[in-house]
Design a protein that fits this description.
This protein is an alpha+beta fold. 31% of the residues lie in helices and 20% in strands. It is built from 17 helices and 19 strands. The chain has helices at residues 2-20, 43-52, 101-112, 120-123, 128-134, 167-171, 181-187, 241-250, 264-269, 298-307, 310-317, 349-358, 382-394, 407-413, 434-442, 455-465, 470-487; strands spanning 23-28, 57-59, 66-68, 71-76, 82-87, 145-150, 155-160, 204-210, 214-219, 232-237, 255-259, 273-277, 282-288, 322-323, 365-370, 398-403, 422-428, 490-496, 499-503. The longest helix has 19 residues, at 2-20.
Length: 528
């Protein structure tokens, strides 16, 4: 009898414990490509990385303004070619090892020096985050970084090859989370995969990564900043926005992002949901590859830009949550646009067809158009948007064959020879500078997918980023705008205000324009 009572009591205790445990569930638009810091440029990976890792510098909640992270302060020399970061003390990685200046140098060298002990060559990885933001790798002509060193246990000094005023903002992007050196060395090339989970100093510790299903995390009780009040966080991989909304309405997930704009009314109509409109700070665009013989011709690219009815596409798929214009920059950065560039690309199918004939293609041609397999803030429904663009191109004689593939492979193959003829992609700015939009897709290291490069544009970007003067920057960026507009290589389709939604009991979630975390601020006290 006593044994039976003991077992019954134990069972009730376990049930009570399980019932009192609180879990926050996020509906993610896709699975991370990698959780090895420095290897990614996509939002799905960035979101998860920002939970596990801390960056040296972070963004204030709901803004693109920087604030201390693992570094408590930073300062530059007179010409912004040397930056010294003072680090937060008494911080540990979640594996118990100490965070210090040597750990920072280890991470930076791994991203920047391909020959490092745990670098790209040894582990057969591509640290594309580094080239996207900071140019070339160590020893390459376009490398922004000249050297990095520890100055005692709590200071790190970055010496640059040229002036770079927004260096703290650039290092704050979620691509550059600081990983435990011990964990990286122990796991080798498997680090940051489901087989060897990432280890950082961040607000959460990753417990599991079930491929194709979800990532499970728990709050890092030893974190130096705010600690989550719930017991567990799950990131469920749900590619289809309609599936995410259905699960949100059913209560099987608590909040989500990248919903279709036409789902806005359905969210508003549900008394259990709150819509969340994320401030627009992105561009969704069609990228053309000059490696394709047809697209080498300037008139062909101009014809394509004139054939696509951007305003009609934006109205159909985004409604009031998207705008179309002739700038690669989102409206928040319109101060850097040129007044000499029209407000938007001209939609004129007849003129486009005439241009094709002048280019030697009176009957058009056939070409591949690749669309992403996951929903992103700038393209929440990629396939039907691609179909709309293909229909516009068909009207002038260009037959676009639609293609897609797995997201990780999509991101990799676009940069492999021969690349994609035309493909849909986009960018959410990690910090509030025109440079991080233009440099990522027009900079000296950005031609792998487009085979387009313009030395004058490269120099203008260097001029703009060397100064903190808004007037001097605007003058240089205006010329970049004019050159990029005339090139018709990256044709902007939309700047969107992404639609997110949450159950009404989700409190304290304030997404910023660039990253949708922090999740540790969220409370779910009323969740049943």
């Amino acid at each position: 009898m006593l044994k039976q009572l003991f077992c019954t009591g134990l069972t009730l205790a376990l049930i009570s414990s399980t019932a009192s445990a609180s879990t926050l569930v996020f509906g993610a638009g896709g699975e991370p490509v990698s959780l090895d810091s420095g290897t990614i440029t996509d939002g799905n990976s960035s979101l998860a990385q920002a939970l596990v890792y801390d960056m040296l510098v972070r963004f204030k909640k709901g803004t693109t303004t920087i604030t201390p992270g693992l570094a408590t302060s930073w300062k530059a020399n007179k010409d912004a070619t040397e930056w010294t970061f003072t680090l937060r003390q008494n911080v540990k990685f979640s594996d118990g090892t100490p965070f210090n200046a040597n750990a920072v140098v280890f991470n930076v060298n791994r991203w920047w020096d391909q020959a490092a002990d745990t670098g790209a060559k040894e582990q057969n990885k591509s640290f594309t985050s580094w080239t996207f933001i900071f140019g070339g790798f160590k020893g390459e002509q376009n490398s922004l970084l000249k050297s990095v060193r520890a100055d005692g246990p709590n200071k790190v000094v970055f010496t640059l090859n040229r002036s770079f005023a927004p260096f703290p903002e650039a290092i704050a992007t979620p691509f550059f989370g600081i990983a435990s050196p011990d964990a990286v060395k122990k796991a080798g090339a498997r680090y940051g995969t489901p087989a060897a989970l990432p280890v950082g100093t961040g607000p959460f510790i990753m417990q599991s990564w079930r491929t194709g299903d979800r990532i499970t995390l728990v709050p890092n009780k030893g974190h130096w900043g705010r600690k989550a009040s719930y017991d567990q966080l799950q990131l469920r991989f749900l590619k289809d926005p309609s599936v995410r909304l259905n699960e949100l309405k059913a209560g099987t997930i608590d909040f989500t992002t990248d919903l279709n704009p036409d789902q806005f009314n359905a969210v508003k109509a549900d008394k259990n949901l709150n819509p969340v409109i994320i401030p627009g700070f992105n561009v969704g665009f069609l990228s053309l590859n000059l490696g394709n013989q047809n697209l080498k011709n300037d008139k062909v690219r101009q014809a394509i830009s004139m054939a696509i009815n951007k305003k009609a596409i934006v109205e159909a798929f985004w409604g009031d949550l998207g705008v179309s214009d002739a700038s690669f920059l989102p409206p928040a950065l319109s101060w850097a646009n040129s007044k000499a560039v029209p407000a938007d690309y001209k939609f004129d199918p007849a003129a486009a067809k005439k241009l094709l004939a002048e280019a030697g293609y009176p009957n058009g041609f056939t070409i591949d158009l690749w669309y992403m397999p996951v929903s992103r803030p700038y393209f929440p429904t990629p396939k039907p948007i691609a179909e709309a663009m293909a229909a516009d191109l068909a009207a002038i004689g260009i037959k676009a064959t639609l293609k897609t593939e797995d997201w990780a492979k999509y991101l990799e193959d676009r940069n492999k020879k021969p690349g994609f003829d035309m493909y849909m992609i986009g960018w959410t700015g990690p910090y509030a500078s025109p440079y991080n939009f233009y440099n990522v897709y027009y900079g000296e290291e950005a031609a792998a997918d487009s085979n387009y490069g313009n030395p004058k544009l490269f120099q203008l970007l260097r001029t703009a980023v060397a100064t903190s003067s808004r007037t001097a920057q605007a003058k240089a960026y205006a010329q970049v705008h004019e050159i990029s507009y005339d090139a018709n290589v990256r044709i902007p389709i939309v700047h969107s205000r992404p639609l997110a939604a949450a159950r009404t009991y989700v409190k304290g979630w304030v997404p910023s324009p660039s990253v949708i975390t922090p999740f540790e601020d969220i409370t779910i006290n009323e969740k049943k």
